Amino acid sequence: MKVFIAIFALIAVTSAEFQVQTSEDLQKYRVECATENNIPAESIEHYKEWKFEDAHAACYINCVFRKMQLYDNDSGFLVDNLVAQLTHGKPDGIRASVEKCTETTETDNCQKAFKGFVCFSKSNLGLIQQSVKKD
């Protein structure tokens, strides 16, 4: 019985391990989040150009981050997952930057996720755009 429990625990830990998301994953999540958040078509076109300037952007980013396992509404930013996604599992010194951008007193989950995204993208937009690997 103890062996069964140990094997089950190992499987549970292994299956919970973060997987770097692909561009296909991002495209799927974009569509799902646009639908779930009733995002107007005009806004979607702006988002494709990395322009998140309207009232819908914060909850859209929150939704995409949650689906990508980068943010959890209960615990906030999943820093290890963010670093793994941005560096494809090979951290290269961006952890401090990610941690700095995830620190906030914001209580609204949409705003919290969005402010972290905006903070990091100010100096690392290219890295963000490249982080979703193409398979």
Automatic annotation (TrEMBL):
Top-level taxon of the source organism: Eukaryota
Keywords, sorted A to Z: Disulfide bond, Secreted, Signal
Keyword Disulfide bond assigned: yes
Signal peptide region: 1-16
Subcellular location: Secreted
GO BP annotation list: sensory perception of smell
One of the record's GO cellular component terms: extracellular space
Chief subcellular location: secreted
Pfam families with a match to the protein in the record: PBP_GOBP
GO molecular function: odorant binding
The family this protein is said to belong to: Belongs to the PBP/GOBP family.
Name of the protein this chain belongs to: Odorant-binding protein 29
Organism in which the protein naturally occurs: Propsilocerus akamusi
Lineage: Eukaryota, Metazoa, Ecdysozoa, Arthropoda, Hexapoda
